[in-house]
Design goal:
Layout lengths: L3 E6 L5 H12 L2 E4 H9 L3 H8 L1 H15 L5 E4 L8 H10 E7 L2 H7 L7 H4 L4 H17 L3 E4 L5 H14 L6
Parallel strand pairs: 1-3, 1-4, 2-3, 4-5
Helix pairs in contact: 1-9, 2-4, 3-4, 6-8
Length: 175
């Protein structure tokens, strides 16, 4: 089985939008892990966090990771915290090529400014500080990716092109 292309990175770095473009370029499907969980649960991520809390959500996320890696070749867009779980990270590394999308703090703040959609940020009074602290806590995990792309000043097409080039050079896809 071909390895999945797994997009990891902080919220607002473009995993879903770049993932859509990348999947089209590669001629495969996109599995957005958060959307997958929402569909299974019949409610949004913020609703899950509000009603059940983060531990419940993370358990559902672990189930979802185990399920989606069983599918045929796809681009998998993870949630920002998916790879904080060591088991998720191990499974995703075994079954996929990890591509970390990054962005500077100002870009992340701009892309995540709508309240009510980002439970990890919405509960903070100082969103900049929250982003900086969360980024720092995940820096080492994200650094373990096979490839990293800064999406701050790039379109989803430009990001997808860079990832496709990496996949070709690395022999993950045919030229």
């Amino acid at each position: 089985m071909a390895k999945h292309v797994v997009l990891i990175g902080f919220m607002g770095t473009g995993k879903t939008s770049c993932g859509r473009t990348l999947a089209t370029r590669l001629g495969c499907g996109l599995v957005d892990l958060d959307k997958y969980i929402e569909a299974k649960e019949g409610r949004s991520i913020p609703e899950i966090f509000a009603a059940e809390g983060e531990p419940y959500f993370r358990a559902k996320e672990r189930e979802a990771v185990r399920e989606v890696v069983q599918r045929k070749f796809a681009v998998i867009a993870t949630g920002g915290g998916t790879v904080k779980d060591e088991e998720n990270l191990r499974i995703l590394k075994e079954r996929g090529v990890l591509v970390c999308l990054t962005a500077d703090v100002d870009t992340i703040l701009q892309r995540t400014e709508r309240r009510g959609e980002r439970p990890m940020l919405d509960r903070s009074e100082d969103r900049r500080k929250a982003v900086e602290e969360l980024l720092e806590s995940r820096r080492e995990i994200y650094a373990g990716a096979d490839f990293t792309v800064d999406t701050s000043r790039r379109s989803p097409m430009q990001v997808a092109d860079e990832i496709v080039d990496f996949l070709r050079v690395g022999g993950f896809i045919r030229a």
